[in-house]
Design brief:
Layout: H1 2-21, H2 28-53, H3 61-78, H4 83-106, H5 112-131, E1 136-137, H6 143-150, E2 152-153, E3 163-164, H7 165-183, H8 185-195, H9 197-202, H10 207-233, E4 235-236, H11 245-255, H12 267-286, H13 294-321
Antiparallel strand pairs: 1-4, 2-3
Helix pairs in contact: 1-12, 2-7, 2-10, 2-11, 2-12, 3-4, 3-5, 3-10, 3-11, 4-10, 6-10, 7-8, 8-10, 11-12, 11-13
Length: about 325
């Protein structure tokens, strides 16, 4: 909880600094876009949190977003599929990819880094090959479907801006994930595996099944995210759609309290971490900082978060000994 309070303070400071430097930060349109992007990336961050809590990693998130996001308009517009069938098929595909990751990691004992790195390359290559590397979009024919991601909820004058509909989707997923993590045996098993997998196995936990479900959840939420991302932007180029999205997801999870060594997770912290990442991206644009530095800044944030985690762990260990 103390770590969350510190992260919330950092978020408030970042917002205040950006507003003082450029008052457009609190413009209704900017706030709505910021909320929408935060909600979308929160879905990816919550998904990767399951994997990180179990002591794993998933580098294929951005490519799953690309595969699902570009194939949805391809199947609906070019192949003539009905959108419900295409949507269900692609979400099943995303879930199966996560299932495949989990099986390869648990049954063949392959390293998560290698498995998901290969997935990063493979899924984007498939998306580019299937679509002919052509830009995919819905045009103006499916505005009703796009409203799932672009819709807004009126605040009846209570707030100077409207709330994007994807915020409710993200909050619903966060509530479910929070319940699973804190109130179910699965969440307990997941943290136990991250802290000491061998001890968890000797305690009777089916560690393979728990880890497989974690990778399945991660890829499935990446598929949901890819669907919402393409509905939001309407068109995408397979060569760059979803690029480095896994970086944002992992950064938000680490900042939000997920230990890269496994065993720790805070859904509230993840939401705050995702918000901080998007505020930083927004600040780069509003403050006219060269966008080429965006990834450098995000990389520095991840490094700082990991270093802070290790320092806190060491200080806590010394305090316990003393």
């Amino acid at each position: 909880m103390k770590k969350n309070l510190g992260l919330i303070t950092l978020l408030v400071v970042a917002c205040l600094f950006t507003f003082l430097a450029n008052d457009r930060f609190l413009a209704p349109v900017n706030v709505e876009n910021l909320l929408r992007r935060t909600a979308l990336f929160s879905l990816l961050s919550i998904g990767v949190a399951f994997v990180i809590t179990a002591g794993g990693i998933d580098l294929s998130i951005g490519s799953v977003v690309c595969l699902v996001g570009t194939l949805l308009p391809y199947l609906v517009v070019q192949a003539g599929w009905s959108w419900p069938v295409a949507l269900v098929a692609l979400l099943l595909l995303a879930g199966c990819l996560g299932l495949l990751h989990g099986v390869l990691i648990t049954k063949l004992r392959l390293q998560p880094f290698i498995v998901t790195l290969c997935g990063l390359l493979l899924y984007r290559g498939l998306a580019r090959g299937i679509t002919g590397d052509q830009t995919q979009g819905f045009g103006l024919e499916h505005e009703g479907l796009r409203a799932v991601a672009t819709g807004k909820l009126p605040t009846l004058g209570v707030l100077p801006f409207e709330i994007p509909s994807v915020v409710l989707i993200s909050l619903a997923v966060a509530l479910i994930a929070g319940f699973v993590m804190s109130r179910t045996p699965y969440g307990l098993f997941l943290r136990a595996i991250g802290r000491n997998e061998l001890a968890a196995r000797y305690s009777g936990v089916d560690t393979d099944r728990v880890k497989i479900l974690a990778y399945l959840a991660c890829s499935l939420l990446a598929g949901v995210g890819g669907t919402l991302f393409i509905l939001d932007v309407n068109s995408a180029q397979p060569s760059d759609f979803g690029n480095f999205y896994e970086l944002y997801a992992i950064a938000a999870a680490v900042l939000g309290g997920c230990s890269l060594k496994g065993g720790e997770c805070s859904i509230v912290g993840i939401l705050v971490g995702a918000s901080l990442m998007q505020v930083l991206r927004n600040a780069i644009v509003l403050l006219d900082i060269p966008t080429q530095l965006e990834f450098a800044i995000i990389g520095a944030v991840i490094l700082a978060g990991a270093a802070a985690e290790e320092l806190v762990r060491r200080l806590a260990g010394r305090a316990a000994v003393a």
